[in-house]
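Researcher: Good morning. I'm working through a list of sequences from a screen, and I'd like to move beyond sequence-only analysis. For each chain I'm collecting a predicted structure so we can compare shapes side by side. This is the next one on the list. No need for commentary yet; just the structure.
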Amino acid sequence: MTLSFETLREEDVVKPGKEAPRRRHRSLAPLLLLPALILFLGVFIIPLGGVFLESFGGRELTFKYYFEIFRDPVLVDVLISTLLLSLAVTAICVLLGYPVALLMLRSAGWLQRLIALLIILPLWTSLLVRTYSWMVILGRKGLVNETLLSLGLIDSPFSLLYNRFSVYVGMVHIMLPFMVLPLFAVMRRIDMNLMSAASSLGASKTRTFFAVFLPLSLPGVMAGSLLVFILSIGFFVTPALLGGLGDTTFVMLIERQVNRLFNWPLASAMSVSLLAATLVLVILYNRIISSTNSKLLGRIWVRVISFLGLIGGPVRSSNQTGLIGRLSNSDPGRPPREFPAISIVAWVVLAITIFPILILYPLAFSDAPYLRFPPPDYSTRWFENYLSRADWLRPTFISFQVAVVVMVLGTGIGTAAAVALVRGDFPFKKATLGLLLSPIIVPTIISAVALYYLFASYGLVGTRTGLVLAHLTLAVPFVIVVVSSSLERVDPALERAAWTLGATKFVTFRKITLPLIKPAVITASLFAFLASFDEVVMAIFLSGVQVKTLPKRMWEGIREEIDPTTAAVAAILVTLSLFAILIVQLLRRSGQAKGAAVHDELTN
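Model: Good morning. Structure tokens for this chain:
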């Protein structure tokens, strides 16, 4: 149906004497936020508050559990080791991510989109799957050892797995996109005329880079470094699967205190300490970088989405940045193609980034009864094994059921909140936004411990309801960021024109705004689905014997048995992610065409 104001019905027109649309819209903003606020209050704030109180011994109100953290030499050593590990991973990500961001900046058109896709694809792929792929590559019968043995370079396999080396490799592979995207977001806003001016004044290429370009890109380095460091200190899955006994991290000790030792007060004190350290880092970052007008909360995820070109629709005519913020559409030019070694390093890094994901396909069709690469023969036996075993199929159905519910509820709650945050006018808007996006930076294991502590009192552990509520706190922030960034790109003049012609707020949103942001809403729903379907940390704490998700079943399969069926399941999950990216790209193109058509019709 053609979108035009002739299609508005008479009952949709504001009658004389009714309240002005703008004022009514403002009054509805808190109502649109109400579902999200109730959700986060009950499933995020209150559980964290319970953990905070438990860290003081409940009614005892004692600091002894905090003192115990620093009196126990084992806890102190693990804490220091975790911080050093996070610093090392951050430094490696800077060294490897900077050339990739530069290569992406120098590229254009399809090549830049290809590089962006290679960076983004791992973010759409299950964390558990990516970690599992490194177990295949670095194992005694893995790709590296088999290649070296076949070339005669070694006589016996190297011990590349279950040590600090494998932890570094796995964590850097997973954290690298979080370094590259903020770097590129800052680099593309640098005016390249400054470099041309430096060259015209006699500066060499090297001097121009280090004196002009590098200092201007430092906000991106700091943003990416802080994000990688925060995620690293709260990382659980990869160190737990790839590390050995001497590679225990602080969050692994928290999990051990909860699930094995049942020492809730100490686990709570450790969780609060980790959360406090995370918040201090964010505050310090905002203090240091505030002059660059580059805030951390929400913006990094906006860039993660925007680099894939997922957001379509008309761009607002104003040059002002919205509440969430968006990437600048200006093109200040690209740096000259110098330092060819940087491009070589960048392409090698990109190849290493994507290779562990692709290697799962031949392994999934292997005929070997154990993990071995290359496979001695090929068959579909592990797919058949997956489809014939109830202990795999039941978790799959449960994950699908939970993910669908999370997708529907999360999309509705997040979209309503995004409309209120972008178009509403009410006090404490920034504080509300920070609250709704806070699960992005809070280590997931802290949220999982808090929910386990709360849900155990209400019998929600091991239930679908508990999993849905937990996953909603992870999915809704993604929906808010995606929909908000798209909504900010819709020219408000189109909505004001509809109000002037007498359309109600509901009709304006349904017939004008919603068609323009529809691709983003569908994209957000896919994010919500994958955020639930692939989630493993919450599942480890909240799944039960009867209600077990697929990631939890894979976790058990990886840790407790050597079953190539896991490779078949991982290949299916990678295919699902590729399919989701394809859908998003098709939606982006159709959304851009539809958005341009609607914009032209309403403005003409």
